[in-house]
Amino acid sequence: MNTKKALKILLWAVVGITVVLFVSLISNISEDQTSVAMNSWISKNLVWSYILLIACGVIALGFGLYQTFTDKEAAKGGLTTLVFAIVVFGISYLLASSKMPSFYGVQKFIDEGTLTLSVAKWADTMLIGTYILLGLTIVATVYSAVANSFK
Length: 151
Known about the structure:
This protein is an all-alpha fold. It has helices at about 5-25, 35-70, 70-95, 105-110, 115-150. It is about 80% helix and about 0% strand.
């Protein structure tokens, strides 16, 4: 059996299991929130969703790694992107303030313990990183438009 046929059979098996679980869930829905049958089918559907999510993540990561290690150009591009992300992240972290923010209602979050110096530093880091990437995007867009107009 060739790979294409095996993958097609696997796909239809996954679709079949999903349809059976979904139909069973729909047929067991009731107004009674304490219904054991309904809660059981909800749990089974959630477990199936988690299995599919994990499987898709592993497959996507596996194919990405395979492509990276078999294609040198892809590896260079991926490494360049990773280095760029680390540089932007590093610059953002260095520019981030380690002070507590001051805005209306901040004391509530400080009292609850959800806003600490560490959380404030990381939030500031992510905001600055977003601003840097937005600025670079705007510069690249303008440069592209100007460069194309001169061609």
